[in-house]
Structures are given as structure tokens and as C-alpha cells.
Design brief:
Blueprint lengths: L2 H23 L19 H39 L3 H42 L6 H25 L1 H8 L5 E3 L2 E2 L6 H13 L7 E5 L5 E3 L3 E3 L4 E2 L3 E5 H4 L4 H12 L6 H7 L1 H19 L3 H43 L2 H26 L8 H10 L24 H7 L6 H7 L5 H9 L4 H31 L6 E5 L4 H24 L6 H28 L4 E3 L3 E3 L7 E2 L3 E9 L2 E8 L17 E4 L4 E6 L3 E3 L4 E3 L1 H23 L1
Helix pairs in contact: 1-2, 1-3, 1-11, 2-3, 2-11, 3-4, 3-5, 3-11, 8-11, 8-12, 10-11, 11-12, 12-13, 12-15, 17-20, 18-19
Length: about 675
């Protein structure tokens, strides 16, 4: 566990515990029985008794939060150790954690939240015992009570998160662009898949979804077809694009591999674990968003829960990835049995090479520069003209998969005991074959109509996305068009000037006294005079530097760029890719990162007076601000946050205008 997580999970409850102990020590037992005269707000029985109860309650709740955090860590460590033994142990351990962790997370939130409430209420009672009521005391009490009210609301709200927590851990629907094909639509495909399932001793899928882009995969999670039906049960995803470039044996090996996830012990993993685990990240995202929208005091109670969940996820994630790779190698063995090891090895190499070759035509399609009614046919025509595929670069790659982690292709081929010789490479790199394409089409009753429908649906989505994107660009481009003049404030100018005058005056006074005392030859006097004169020069130089930097605007923020007397040319905002802000003591630094290939302007002033520095190796420009800034000709105050937001908005607007010009 990293330092930040340790601080939140254990440091926060420990600090609250010790603070509550200190509050308990502050109570004078004699004061509990002391009754003051009417009209005074001094030590009262009610206030002191309340302080005793609240101090002990704060200790109790903070201790409960500490115990809950400790129990969560112990549960996670023991579960992960158990999960490393076998995939079955992984499922059992995760199932147990899934049931217990939400209760612990809510317990941590509630305990720390109530501990904070008790600590703050104690201080309200303490303020009550200070003496006669004053306007300041009353305002302070009201302010603290408002904070307590928000904390109580947060704690109560956290109790209702339990139900949502369970709901978010449920399997998530997979959003898929494709079409579910029945046996009437693809009788040959269904018969063939049944044969492959029987050959590999696997479960026949309940649904087959045909799509365009993603690779072959199976899932037990519910599948929501885009603009279509919701499918439950076991689903096989069959991509027309990849199948068009693979022969029958290679496709059989890939399908055998995927159906291998529905055989033996892997069936339990795939059906009952993968979907639940996929929902965990969504649950943690929900908690994180809830924390982000809370105040800092609320985050103090919520952050330990978030860090516990994130740490839990990271610990399990490594174990899950390990078993996922073991499962993939076992599924490879199933694919090799269904077809042949050589066919599966060739399909792995060919699949990665196809990914690279698909990039260019797919980019044209998504940018609406490829007009086609049948994307699969267009891909086949385009790639057939490119000759052989380059499979050498595929060896160290990991094939993408929507739910699982794959080992590198070289490792998978080595596990199949298939030599990486010329025969395999020639087979995997062969040019697109018309026979393979026609065989894929023969699996469906009307492959052309199916591919055309999928292409039309995707083209419609691309068009809608483009229209929405264009509208967003136009909206961004319409903003941030007026120029904003930014100037530095005269921070420390008068201070430096006064110090310079004092140093010079002090040097003159010491010199006059030394003459009066006939001590002109005294070395100590000379050192004092020299030091004061040097200090005066330094402070004078500092005040002159500040005056030079603030006598004219630092820069003007325009729709096109940042213009400044310190720059040889405007710093173009459309070339800025990212912006960051950081502070060191009272200095603020704004980092502007430009895109590769851009030639930034140069500084026209000396290092002592410049506010802009450029780091070409990092593609970064830095604006240094020694304090606050002013805006406009009226030199109104402008916070650093406002300046950062303005820069960010102007950069977005400039980028949007450039995109519109290029579209």
C-alpha cells in the first residue's frame, strides 16, 4: 500500500482517535458538577457532560474506522493469497470479498464521518463554556454547526450507498455494434459452430453476433445490441472483417479457442466471475465521482473508503491478469485441438498483421472519406492490392480483447510447440485470397445484405458523431475571441524600494557616525557600510526589476495566441496541446506544452527581466508569475485560477477553429 493510501486508511482515523483522546483530557471532572449563576454562559453541567460523551464517542467511532480499515486490508491480503492457488479459489475469494467489502467500505465512511461530527460538536460545547456569549462566539458556533450538518448529511447518504454498491458490482451489459444472426440467417455458420463445440467439448453459444471491427470473442455478460435487442446467455462475436482474410482452418482454431472458455473449469470463471469483476471498476468510478463532488471535509471521510477500494482492485487485478493469461493458454490448447496448432499459430500472427493493415482504410471510413455501402468488401479490395502481410512485428504484440488479458503472441506460439519457421511465416503472411472471402460469405444466407446493413448502421453513427463533433467545435470556436490584457501586480515593489532606501540611509548614518567618532579606519565599520550599500543595491535592483516588468502589460491573450513585448512573435494557442499549473512558495508557473514540430518564438529581453522561458527538449513554454496578476486597461484583480481557466478556454477555442478549418 502506497504512502497516500496508508495516510488516508490509517492516518485519518488515528489522528481523529488521538484528537478525541486529547479532548477527553481537556475535561475537568470538577466542572461537571459546577453550576454557574443564571445569565452566564460559563461552565455548565450540560456542556461538560456533553463534552465527556462526545469525546468518548469520537474515540469509539475513530477506533471503529481504524478496525474497519484494518479488517479490509486483512481480508484483501488473505483473499489474494488464496486466489493465487487456483482459479476456483480466485472465484471463491472474490465472491466473499464482493459480499463483505461493501459493508466494510460503508462502515469506514460512517465511522470516520461520525467521528468528525463528534470532534466538531465537542468544540461547539467547548466554545459554549468559554464565557459570556459574544457575537463572534455565536457566529463561530453557527459556522461549525453548518459544517456538522453537511457531515451528517454525507454520513447518512453513505448508508444508502450500500444498495448501489451491490448493484454496481453486478455484471454490466456489453454495448456491441452488430447484428444477432439466427439459424435462418446463417444455417451453415450455426451448424459449423456446433461441430466445433462438439469437437472441443465446449458449450454451444446461445447467441452469435456478427459485427465489423472487434476480434473474435465470447462473453457470458448480457449483450446490448446497438439499436437492437438485449441478449442474455453465452454469446459468440463473429467479425466479418477478420474472417474475410482467414481460411477455414484458421477461423476454426480461433472459434475453438473462444469456445474453450466455455469448457471445463473455465466455464465457471467465464459465466460467474468475468462479468462481476468487470463491474468492479464501474463501482469504484462511482465512488470516486461522489468524492470529487464533495467538500474537503467530506472527502476526509470518503477518501479512506476510495483508497481501500482502489488498493483492493489493484491487488486483485494482478492476480486476475495472471489467471487470465493462464486461461488464454488453456484456451489456445482447446483451439489447437479443434483445428490444428499450426492453424492457430498462423491465425495469431495474421490477426495482428490485419490490425495494422486495417488502420488506414478504417481511418478513412471514420473520417467520412471512404464512401462504401459494403465496408467488408471495400476492406478486402483494398488489402488485396497490398500483397503479403507483415507478420514479423506481430510476435511481441498482445492481441486486444474486450474482457481478457493475452500473453504476447510469441509466448502463445511457443506454448503450442509450433516452430517459428519459414513455413509458418509464409502461411500467415499470404496475400488476401478470394477463396477465403467467398468461404466466409457462404456461411450466411445473404452476406451482402448483412454487411451492407452493418455498414449503413455504422456510417449513420459516424455521421451523427461527426455532426455532434462539428457542433461542439463551432460552439468552442465562437467563444474566447476578445483580447485580454494581463499585467503583473506590483508585488513587493514598494517593499524592495523601502528596503533599498533604508539600507542606503543606514549606510550613510553609519558613515556619518564613524566620521563623528573618528572611526573611519575601523574595519568593522567598513564591513557594516559595505553590507548596507550592497543590500541597498540588491533591493534597488529588485525594485527596478519589478518596476520594469510591471510598467507595461505582461502579455495580451488573443484568439490566435499570446502576444508579449518579451516575445519575438505570438505564441500560437492552436499549437498548444496541454496546460499545467504549479506553485513554488509565492511564485506561480504555468506550463504550456506545444505539439511536435512547432517552432516557438524567442525571448527578446534579458534573463533577469523575462517572464517566459522555453524548454525545446520538453516542448514546453513556462510563464513565471511572482504573485497575482491584473487584467484589462483598468488593471482589475485577476486570480491565478481565473488566468488558468482563461488560458484553457482560449486554447480550446483556437484548437476548435483550426479543426474546423481543416475539416
Amino acid at each position: 500500500m502506497d504512502k497516500k493510501s496508508l495516510l488516508y486508511c490509517f492516518g485519518v482515523p488515528l489522528i481523529l482517535f488521538f484528537y478525541a483522546c486529547w479532548q477527553n483530557i481537556r475535561i475537568n471532572e470538577v466542572d461537571v458538577y459546577q453550576v454557574t449563576q443564571y445569565g452566564f454562559v460559563g461552565h455548565s453541567v450540560f456542556a461538560d457532560m456533553s463534552r465527556q460523551i462526545l469525546a468518548k464517542a469520537g474515540m469509539l467511532f475513530s477506533l471503529l474506522g481504524l478496525i474497519a480499515s484494518t479488517s479490509a486490508v486483512i481480508l484483501c491480503v488473505l483473499s489474494v493469497r488464496k486466489a493465487r492457488i487456483s482459479a476456483e479459489k480466485l472465484i471463491a475469494a472474490f465472491t466473499l470479498c464482493r459480499k463483505l467489502l461493501p459493508f466494510i467500505m460503508v462502515g469506514v465512511m460512517a465511522s470516520i464521518g461520525f467521528a468528525l461530527v463528534c470532534v466538531l460538536l465537542y468544540e461547539v460545547c467547548w466554545i459554549y463554556t468559554l464565557g459570556r456569549a459574544s457575537a463572534f462566539n455565536i457566529k463561530l458556533v453557527i459556522f461549525v454547526l453548518l459544517i456538522i450538518g453537511s457531515l451528517v448529511f454525507m454520513v447518512l447518504k453513505s448508508l444508502f450507498l450500500l444498495k448501489r454498491c451491490f448493484a454496481l458490482f453486478e455484471p454490466q451489459d456489453m454495448q456491441v455494434h452488430g447484428a444477432a444472426v439466427s439459424e435462418a440467417d446463417a444455417p451453415k455458420l450455426w451448424r459449423w459452430v456446433r461441430e466445433l463445440a462438439q469437437r472441443g467439448q465446449a458449450i454451444v453459444p446461445d447467441n452469435i453476433v456478427v459485427g465489423l471491427f472487434e476480434g473474435f470473442y465470447v462473453t457470458a455478460s448480457p449483450v446490448q445490441i446497438e439499436n437492437g435487442a438485449r441478449l442474455t446467455g453465452n454469446t459468440l462475436y463473429f467479425p466479418l472483417s477478420y474472417a474475410a482474410f482467414m481460411n477455414k482452418d484458421e477461423v476454426a482454431a480461433v472459434i475453438g479457442h473462444e469456445l474453450g472458455h466455455f469448457s471445463g473449469n473455465d466455464t465457471v470463471y467465464t459465466l460467474h466471475f468475468a462479468g462481476l469483476y468487470a463491474g468492479m471498476e464501474n463501482s469504484l468510478d462511482y465512488f470516486y465521482r461522489d468524492v470529487a463532488s464533495s467538500g474537503w471535509l467530506e472527502r476526509l471521510a470518503l477518501n479512506p473508503t476510495i483508497h481501500l477500494g482502489l488498493w483492493f482492485y489493484r491487488q486483485f487485478h494482478e492476480t486476475v491478469n495472471g489467471w487470465s493469461r493462464v486461461r488464454e493458454l488453456a484456451a489456445d490448447a482447446a483451439g489447437a485441438r479443434t483445428s490444428s496448432p499450426q492453424a492457430l499459430a498462423a491465425s495469431l500472427l495474421r490477426f495482428s498483421a490485419l490490425n495494422e493493415r486495417f488502420n488506414a482504410p478504417m481511418e478513412l471510413f471514420f473520417s467520412r472519406k471512404l464512401e462504401t455501402h459494403d465496408l467488408v468488401h471495400s476492406l478486402f479490395t483494398s488489402l488485396r492490392e497490398g500483397g503479403r502481410f507483415d507478420v514479423a512485428a506481430s510476435l511481441e504484440q498482445e492481441l486486444a480483447h474486450p474482457t481478457d488479458s493475452h500473453p504476447p503472441t510469441r509466448v502463445r506460439i511457443e506454448q503450442l510447440n509450433v516452430p517459428l519457421d519459414e513455413t509458418l511465416l509464409v502461411s500467415a503472411s499470404r496475400p488476401a485470397d478470394e477463396a477465403d472471402y467467398q468461404w466466409m460469405r457462404s456461411l450466411f444466407r445473404d452476406a451482402s445484405a448483412l454487411s451492407a446493413a452493418l455498414t449503413a448502421g455504422m456510417a449513420s453513427n459516424v455521421e451523427a458523431h461527426h455532426d455532434a463533433y462539428q457542433a461542439e467545435l463551432e460552439n468552442l470556436a465562437a467563444h474566447s475571441t476578445e483580447s485580454v490584457v494581463v499585467s503583473l501586480r506590483k508585488k513587493n515593489f514598494w517593499l524592495f524600494l523601502v528596503l533599498a532606501v533604508l539600507c542606503v540611509a543606514g549606510a550613510g548614518l553609519v558613515l556619518a557616525l564613524s566620521i563623528q567618532w573618528n572611526a573611519t579606519a575601523n574595519s568593522s565599520m567598513e564591513k557594516i557600510i559595505f553590507g548596507l550599500v550592497a543590500g541597498g543595491l540588491i533591493f534597488g535592483l529588485a525594485s527596478w526589476t519589478m518596476h520594469t516588468r510591471v510598467r507595461q502589460p505582461l502579455f495580451t491573450l488573443t484568439a490566435q495566441g499570446i502576444e508579449s513585448y518579451q516575445l519575438s512573435a505570438p505564441l500560437l494557442l492552436a499549437e498548444i496541446e496541454n496546460i499545467d499549473i504549479r506553485s513554488v512558495n509565492e511564485w506561480v508557473f504555468i506550463d504550456l506544452y506545444w505539439r511536435e514540430g512547432y517552432q516557438p518564438p524567442t525571448c527578446t529581453v534579458g534573463r533577469l527581466f523575462r517572464s517566459f522561458t522555453f524548454e525545446p527538449k520538453k516542448n514546453k513554454a513556462v510563464i513565471s508569475l511572482p504573485g497575482g496578476v491584473l487584467k484589462g486597461a483598468q488593471r482589475e484583480k485577476m486570480s491565478i485560477e481565473e488566468l488558468y481557466v482563461a488560458l484553457h478556454e482560449y486554447i480550446q477555442a483556437a484548437w476548435a477553429r483550426r479543426e474546423l478549418n481543416h475539416s
